[in-house]
């Protein structure tokens, strides 16, 4: 690892290179990638480079010519002896301690993929060993005279801003996987633009997206995907953009550059990712009844047990079995609107009539109860009691930014939208 003082201040302000567990001197092959601090302003001409950096197998730690660090991940079937061999530890006393001592029991129980760092001298004698503990802290085993002692270090937590871009080839989830965007962020992306883009029908090959999001790390390991800060989705050549803005101390939402809320009163779909197996029609041949009849709803083919979300805030009007719907949930919204979710395998725990539900809340799970030939969700959207095609009806918008918050909104989001400009045509490679 390069000494930190070899990086210029200006370079660090524009692009920070992070090497896994950078607080420790690590050796071997590591992966580096560009991290964009949320408070830094990026140059429009700047390019982010991602590559694997192969370091020498052994190298002296700066300032200590007799000390060497190496890191390895736990592999399936690993023994203490095999792990120490890969760490270049040649120390029988250390091996005996780590295999037998109760204070090193956590090392012997580490899950596959967890990282261990070892410091050795030039002869391979173990000086220190670090690995994650069950409580999130780091366990440290250090040489103490002729023996070893165990201690702990506080977990090193940090939040990093990361960027992913991708292009649609088949579907949204395949594209986000290819780009390296974590599933929680992919779901957020679908929710943010779901009111403007029907991800079941509107996607086209060549559509593109850019996502700037937060990732939470503990001891250099990613532990939780945070919030999307800003995103762009280019659909049919039209660019949709959104950035997060904290409207109050405990709430916020996504808005377009003009301050229009991305939050529609209704989601376009009650399922995150599926396909439409039967659309809204006034005349459809029913596969079970064997006769022509209207189909005043949309059927979504999905795996048994897939989560079903309520598409808008409302009050549960009915939960139970009803005719051809099978297990069904009916929800009233804003007086004039109501929605129906049929053929469910089961309901969300504790769901009951009169309960208030919030947009996106899980209310049930896909099934094939009632008149159904296979697992799918039957969804209806009603206006004043009359079924309307949920894929075509104009959905009411959420509240825009208030005039009183216009200046604060511009101050908070101008840089986020500028960063989208910077990466508009940039593709960031997926980490191996």
Give the key terms.
432 residues; mainly beta; Nuclear Transport Factor 2, Chain: A; Glucose Permease (Domain IIA); 6-stranded antiparallel sheet; 26 strands
Integer count of domains:
3
- Which sheet architecture does the biggest sheet show? 10 strands, antiparallel
Low-confidence stretches: 1-64, 279-286, 427-432
CATH topology of the largest domain: the name is Nuclear Transport Factor 2, Chain: A
| Proportion of residues in helical segments | 10-25%
CATH class of the largest domain: Alpha Beta
Number of helices: 7
How would you classify the helix and strand content by structural class?
A: mainly beta
Please state the overall shape, judged from the principal axes of the Cα atoms.
Answer: elongated
- CATH architecture designation of the largest domain: Roll
- Please give the alpha-carbon distance between the first and last residues: 20 Å
Radius of gyration: 27 Å
What is the β-strand count?
26
Averaged pLDDT: 80
How would you explain this protein's 3D organization?
With 432 residues, the protein is mainly beta. It has three domains: 58-153, Nuclear Transport Factor 2, Chain: A; 158-264 and 403-422, Nuclear Transport Factor 2, Chain: A (Roll), CATH 3.10.450.350; 275-388, Glucose Permease (Domain IIA), CATH 2.70.70.10. It is 14% helix and 40% strand. It has seven helices and 26 strands. It has helices at residues 9-14, 80-86, 92-100, 105-108, 172-179, 183-193, 406-422, and strands at 16-19, 29-35, 51-54, 60-61, 64-73, 115-121, 126-132, 138-144, 147-153, 157-167, 208-218, 221-235, 238-248, 251-255, 275-278, 281-285, 292-295, 298-301, 307-309, 314-322, 326-333, 337-347, 356-357, 362-366, 376-383, 386-388. The strands form five sheets. Strands 15, 18, 19, 20, 21, 22, 23, 24, 25 and 26 form a ten-stranded antiparallel sheet that branches. It has a six-stranded antiparallel sheet with strand order 4-5-6-7-8-9, with helices on one face. The protein has a five-stranded antiparallel sheet with strand order 10-11-12-13-14, with helices on both faces. A hairpin with a 2-residue loop joins strand 13 (238-248) and strand 14 (251-255). 32% of the residues are buried. Residues 1-64, 279-286 and 427-432 have low confidence and may be disordered.
């Amino acid at each position: 690892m390069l000494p930190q003082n070899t990086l210029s201040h200006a370079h660090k302000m524009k692009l920070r290179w992070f090497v896994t567990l950078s607080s420790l001197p690590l050796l071997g092959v590591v992966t580096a990638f560009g991290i964009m601090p949320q408070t830094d302003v990026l140059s429009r001409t700047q390019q982010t480079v991602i590559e694997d950096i192969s370091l020498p197998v052994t190298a002296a730690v700066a300032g200590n010519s007799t000390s060497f660090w190496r890191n390895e991940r736990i592999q399936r079937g690993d023994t203490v002896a095999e792990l120490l061999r890969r760490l270049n530890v040649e120390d029988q006393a250390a091996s005996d301690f780590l295999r037998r001592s109760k204070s090193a029991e956590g090392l012997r129980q580490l899950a596959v993929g967890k990282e261990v760092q070892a410091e050795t001298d030039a002869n391979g004698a173990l000086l220190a060993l670090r690995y994650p503990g069950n409580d999130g802290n780091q366990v440290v085993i250090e040489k103490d005279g002729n023996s070893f002692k165990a201690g702990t270090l506080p977990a090193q937590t940090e939040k990093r801003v990361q960027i992913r871009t991708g292009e649609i080839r088949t579907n949204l989830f395949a594209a986000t996987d290819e780009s390296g965007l974590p599933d929680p962020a992919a779901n957020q992306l679908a929710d943010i633009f779901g009111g403007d883009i029907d991800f079941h029908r509107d996607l086209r090959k060549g559509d593109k997206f850019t996502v700037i999001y937060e990732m939470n790390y503990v001891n250099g390991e990613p532990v939780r995907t945070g919030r999307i800060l800003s995103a762009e989705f280019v659909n049919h050549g039209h660019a949709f953009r959104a950035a997060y803005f904290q409207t109050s101390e405990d709430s916020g939402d996504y808005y377009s550059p003009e301050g229009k809320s991305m939050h529609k009163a209704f989601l376009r779909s009650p399922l995150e990712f599926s396909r439409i197996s039967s659309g809204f029609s006034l005349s459809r041949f029913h596969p079970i009844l064997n006769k022509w009849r209207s189909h005043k709803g949309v059927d979504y083919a999905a795996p048994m047990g897939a989560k079903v979300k309520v598409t808008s805030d409302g009050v549960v009007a009915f939960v139970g079995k009803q005719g051809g719907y099978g297990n069904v949930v009916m929800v009233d919204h804003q007086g004039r609107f109501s929605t129906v979710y049929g053929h469910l395998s089961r309901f969300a725990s504790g769901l009951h009539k009169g309960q208030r539900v919030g947009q996106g809340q899980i209310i049930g799970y896909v099934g094939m109860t009632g008149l159904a030939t296979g697992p799918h969700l039957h969804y209806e959207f009603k206006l004043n009691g009359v079924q309307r095609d949920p894929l075509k009806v104009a959905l009411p918008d959420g509240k825009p930014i208030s005039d009183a918050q216009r200046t604060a909104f511009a101050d908070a989001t101008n840089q986020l939208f500028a960063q989208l400009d910077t990466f508009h045509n940039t593709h960031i490679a997926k980490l191996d």
